[in-house]
Each structure stands twice: as C-alpha cells, then as structure tokens.
Design goal:
This protein is mainly α and 496 residues long. The protein is built from 15 helices and 2 strands.
Length: 496
C-alpha cells in the first residue's frame, strides 16, 4: 500500500514538472511572439485595404492591380502616420498624467477618425503641395509610378523614424517623396524650387515659433500664478483667461484648418469666431474655476487640477484637426493614382473617393493603437518633464502658431510646432532655474558654486533626444527624396 502511494506521489511530481515545462514554454512562446502581434495585425489591415480597393474600384485588368498596390501603400502610410504623428497631440497630455495611455488612444482614435471623415480635405493637388509641375511627367503611366514611389518612400521613412524614436513631419516626408520621384521622372527643372525653399524655411520657423509661444505662456503662468504668494487666488483670476485663450485659439484653428470640407472660412472670420467663443468661455469658466478651487491647498500641486480638463479637450481638438489635415498625406497620392488609372487625367485637381478616405482614417487609428505608445511616451516624458501647466502651454502653442503661420502665409509642420513647444517649455525651465540660481547666489554670496557634473545633472532637456530629433527633421526631405527616386527607378524597371 505504501509503495502504491509512493508511486502515485512520484507520478504527480512528474506530472507537475511536465506541466511546469509546458507553462514555461508557453510563456516563452508568448514573450517571443508578442512583438509580432502589431506587425501581424498591420499586415492584415494592409491586405484588407487591397481587398477594399478591388471591391470599390472594380476589375479593370492591369489598372486594378495598380490601384490595389497603391491602396496597400496608402494603408501602410496611414499606419505610420498614426504611429508617429499622433504622438504630438497626445504626448503632452499623457506625459502630464492628465490622460492615461488607454484614454489617450481612445480619444485620438475617435477624434482622428472624425476629423478625417467629417472634415478631411476633399480636393488635393495631383502633385502634393505644388512640388512638381504635373505636365512635366509626360504621361499617366509615369505619373502613377512616381506617385507610387513617393507614397512608399514616405511610408518607409516615417516607419524608420518611428523605430528610432524620432517624431518627424509626415507632410515633409510626402513632399520629399514627390520631389524625389519627380526629379527621377522629369529632371530637376520640374521642381518648384520657391515652394521647396518655403518648406525648408519651415524647418526652422515651425519649431522656433512653437517653442517661443509655449515658453511665453509658461512664463506668464509662472509669473502670474506659480510665483504668487496666494496661488489659488491668482489661479481664480488667470485660469479662466488662459482657458478662454485656448478655446478661442482652437475655435480659430479648427475654422482655418479643420473645417475646409464643411464650410470655407477666411482667416478674419475665423479670428472673430475665436474671439466670440473665447469671451463666452471666459464668462463660463469664472464660476467653474472658483468652485473647482474651493478647499485646494496653496501649493503648485493643487494647480494641476485646474488645467487637467482643458488639456484633455485640447488633445481631442488637436486630434480632430490633425485627422482633417494630415489624412491627405496618406490618401492624396492614392487618390491621384485612382483618378489617373480611371480616366488617364493626371493634371486636374483630384477628388478623394470616400473609400480612399476610409482607408486613411482607419489606418491612422490602427497605427496609433498598435505602434503609437512608443512615440507618445517619448514626446510626453522623455524630452523634458511635463505637468498639466507645461503641457497646456505646448497644446496652446500648436493652435496659435498655426494661426499665425496661416496669417503670414508660411508653410509649417504640426509635428515641428508641437515638439518645438516641448523643447521651448524645457529650455525655458532651464533658463528660469539658472536665473533663480543666480539671484539666490547674489543674495547669498557665500553659497558654494555648482560643479560641472551638478550643472549637467540639472539640464531639463535631454540633449540626446534633442539632437536625434533635429537631425531627423533636417534629413527628412532629402532622405525621402533619395529613397523615392531609387524606388521609382526600381518600379519603372520592373514594369518595363
């Protein structure tokens, strides 16, 4: 009987060891396959986009094959826009802990899709932003291959930038792709160099302007609220004003940039709309902030509560405007290919079919969901530390800078503005901390000076990220252009 129990015990021990091995194997398999889930789902979406093209474009021999391939490239580009560009809208709110990662993704998916489908531009130029003269392409076939190369090159470049953790301008990526393919197809004379000069200028103008506006508002918040003896009383006075400025700026921003498809609004009218909504918001927010601030302690941490909701709303509005504008980066060249394949006309303006717009909207949402968290964390927390006040300054700078740039007629990048705003906030904090340290040293001359190591430790902007991002911005257009030219020659050789 004892031997029987001993055999049963050994059998159970053996079974437990086997189950443990299977459990370990399952865990190891899950760990190894987890990184493949995102790319796998992305591949499925790209294939579905191709099937979508067959269903809506119809079957027309070789033209259908071209449109299907272009739809796959457009879906790939849309995924990369979601993975890279949307981080600029959501990163500050997540970094400031006003939104969780899940909440940020949900808001971005809803508002990006709404912006793309409701207010997405229904007409785009056959050649993005007038970079290349359409007639220089010669025939529809050359034009189609050039657009195909531009779309794939832009998508590959944005994918690479996301992988290395650099937020880049998808607009500049598409512009570089179109320029490279255009030069490969028709030579340097085909390029609209004055337009390219403006785009090159925007590499400097966008981040500098965004940084200055963000730093200016942070200086206002610090001087008028944070450095005041009675912070809560100061907040009751100034937070309604700041929220009103944000509401007015976003109303004007969306009027100018986000509602082109629904209604045409000139800049002066949009500013009046922003002024009216800002005044109404100020009147509404006075009692709201007064009630919110009741019982708050007189310290900086208490102020964060008052900026949380405006920051969440700003993230949603930025996502809506981004979806309305930047979806064309994914579907503009695709729509041009569809029109050229159907009619052979590649010089007229292109209307984007609804099925093409759906591919762009869904692709941006899927890209954000599958691959966006990496860039969101980087923009929100790894460049400089953000709290709700600092993140508010970044969001507000994005809206105001676009309005100012539209008024001045300057082409700017929303990516450069938002990231420039983060840099501006960080560098202003460094400058302010240094200023206060010098003041304290004048008041206490015997205080020992900081060592070089301590000074380096007190830097509030990570220089490694700063240099990586600036380098990526500078080389985006030429890198996309070279890649596009290589792909164009490859496609022409393959097609021939």
């Amino acid at each position: 009987m004892g031997d029987q129990k001993s055999d049963d015990a050994r059998h159970l021990e053996t079974l437990d060891r086997d189950l443990a091995r299977y459990s370990n194997l399952e865990s190891a398999t899950g760990y190894m396959t987890r990184p493949l889930v995102g790319p796998g789902l992305a591949f499925v979406f790209i294939m579905l986009a191709g099937l979508f093209a067959v269903l809506f474009f119809g079957t027309d021999g070789g033209n259908t094959a071209i449109v299907v391939i272009a739809a796959c490239f457009g879906a790939y580009m849309a995924l990369n826009i979601g993975a890279n560009d949307v981080a600029n809208n959501m990163g500050p709110a997540v970094g400031a802990n006003a939104l969780t990662m899940g909440g940020a993704i949900l808001i971005a998916v809803v508002f990006e899709s709404a912006g793309a489908l409701i207010a997405g531009g229904d007409v785009v130029s056959t050649i993005a932003k007038g970079i290349i003269a359409p007639e220089s392409m010669g025939d529809a076939s050359t034009f189609i291959w050039a657009m195909m190369a531009a779309l794939l090159a832009a998508a590959l470049w944005v994918n690479l930038a996301t992988w290395v953790g650099a937020p880049v301008s998808t607009t500049h990526s598409v512009v570089g792709g179109v320029m490279g393919a255009g030069i490969a197809a028709a030579g340097f004379a085909a390029v609209n160099w004055p337009t390219m000069g403006k785009i090159a200028a925007s590499w400097v103008i966008s981040p500098v302007l965004g940084g200055l506006v963000a730093a200016g508002f942070l200086a206002l918040i610090k001087s008028r609220i944070i450095y005041q003896d009675d912070k809560i009383a100061a907040a009751r006075k100034w937070v309604p004003v700041l929220v009103a400025i944000m509401a007015g700026a976003f109303a004007a921003y969306l009027s100018v940039k986000g509602l082109k498809k629904i209604i045409k609004i000139d800049l002066q009218t949009s500013l009046l709309i922003g002024l009216a909504l800002g005044a109404a918001t100020w009147a509404i927010m006075i009692p709201v902030i007064k009630k919110q601030s009741e019982g708050l302690e007189n310290r900086n941490k208490s102020l964060k509560v008052l900026f949380a909701i405006p920051l969440i709303v700003s993230a949603a509005m930025l996502s809506f405007a981004h979806g309305a504008n930047d979806v064309a980066n994914a579907v503009g060249p695709l729509a041009a290919i569809v029109q050229a394949s159907q009619s052979g006309d590649f010089t007229a303006a292109v209307s984007i079919p609804i099925w093409v717009m759906v591919i762009g909207a869904l692709g941006i949402s899927f890209g954000l969901f599958l691959f966006g968290p990496k860039l969101i964390r980087m923009v929100g927390g790894q460049i400089t530390k953000l709290n709700p006040m600092r993140a508010y300054c970044v969001a507000l700078s994005a809206a105001i800078t676009v309005i100012v740039a539209s008024w001045l007629g300057l082409p700017v990048s929303s990516t450069h503005i938002a990231v420039g705003g983060v840099f501006g906030v960080g560098f202003f904090r460094e400058w302010d901390a240094e200023r206060r340290l010098k003041k304290a040293r004048r008041e206490m001359p015997d205080r020992p000076a900081l060592t070089r190591e301590e000074r380096a430790r007190r830097k509030l902007v990570r220089r490694s990220h700063f240099m990586t991002i600036i380098a990526a911005w500078v080389i985006t257009v030429p890198a996309a252009a070279i890649l596009s030219a290589v792909i164009f020659f490859g496609l022409i050789t393959f097609a021939g």
